[in-house]
Design a protein that fits this description.
The protein is an alpha/beta fold and 198 residues long. 39% of the residues lie in helices and 17% in strands. It contains 7 helices and 7 strands; from the N terminus they run ββαβαβαβααααββ. It has a 5-stranded parallel beta sheet with strand order 3-2-1-4-5, with helices on both faces. The protein has a two-stranded antiparallel sheet with strand order 6-7. The longest helix is centred in the middle third of the chain and has 16 residues. The relative contact order is 0.12.
C-alpha cells in the first residue's frame, strides 16, 4: 500500500483538523520558534493518532527555517519510500513549488503543496471537493482587499489556479460577471458584491 504523508508548515497554517484526515495518513508537524504550544483540541487529536503523528520544533525564528526543515524531512521520507504520496500544507508557494516541480517532473515523485487541508486528500475520502468556481468564490470571500481592475482579478485567478488552462481561467472570470458577483463600471473599475460571495 502507498504510504500517504501530510507535512504541515504549522508556522504558516494553523487551520488544521487532524480528525478529518483519512485513517491511513501520517502527519508530520513543523513548529516555528515562536510556537510554544498547540491548542488543546489539536493536541487531543494528535494523541489519538498515536504513531501516525510526529512533530519537530524549530528553535530558530529565522526566515524560511521551517521550510528548509520540511524540505529535509521530505527528502528523508522519499528516500526511505519513493512510492509515498507526500502533501505539504503551506501557503508558501514561492518556497515549495519550484522544489515540487523538480521532484515531480524530473524525479517522478508524488508530491504536492496545498494551502487548504480540504485539498490534501479529499479526492480519496469521499468528501466532495469544491469545483474551481466554488473555490474561486471562497478565495475571493477570504480576500481583505479585492482587485480594483479586471486585470488584477485575472492575475489573482492565474495565481490561484496555475494548473488550469488559460481558457478555463478566463471562463471562471466570465462566470463571476455572469452570476452577478462582480460588476465592471464604465471606468473599468470592479465592484464585488460581498453578500453574494457565499
Amino acid at each position: 500500500m502507498v504510504e500517504r504523508i501530510l507535512l504541515v508548515d504549522y508556522e504558516n497554517i494553523q487551520a488544521v483538523n487532524l480528525g478529518a484526515l483519512p485513517d491511513d495518513v501520517k502527519v508530520g508537524f513543523v513548529l516555528g520558534g515562536k510556537q510554544r504550544t498547540l491548542p488543546t483540541a489539536l493536541a487531543v487529536q494528535a494523541q489519538a493518532m498515536g504513531s501516525r503523528f510526529d512533530y519537530v520544533r524549530i528553535l530558530s525564528v529565522e526566515r524560511d527555517a521551517c521550510d528548509f526543515c520540511i524540505a529535509f524531512y521530505l527528502g528523508e521520507l522519499l528516500h526511505a519510500n519513493p512510492q509515498s504520496e507526500c502533501v505539504i500544507l503551506s501557503k508558501d508557494k514561492k518556497g515549495f513549488d519550484p522544489l515540487i516541480k523538480h521532484l515531480t517532473g524530473e524525479r517522478g515523485f508524488k508530491v504536492r503543496r496545498v494551502d487548504d487541508q480540504q485539498d490534501a486528500f479529499a479526492e480519496t475520502t469521499g468528501v466532495s471537493r469544491k469545483t474551481p468556481f466554488e473555490r474561486l468564490v471562497w478565495l475571493l470571500k477570504k480576500e481583505k482587499v479585492l482587485p480594483r481592475k479586471r486585470r488584477g482579478l485575472e492575475g489573482k485567478v492565474k495565481s490561484w489556479f496555475r494548473d488550469l488552462p488559460a481558457t478555463d481561467r478566463a471562463g471562471l472570470v466570465t462566470q463571476l460577471f455572469q452570476d452577478g458577483l462582480v460588476k465592471e463600471s464604465d471606468k473599468k473599475e470592479l465592484t464585488f458584491f460581498r453578500t453574494r460571495l457565499t
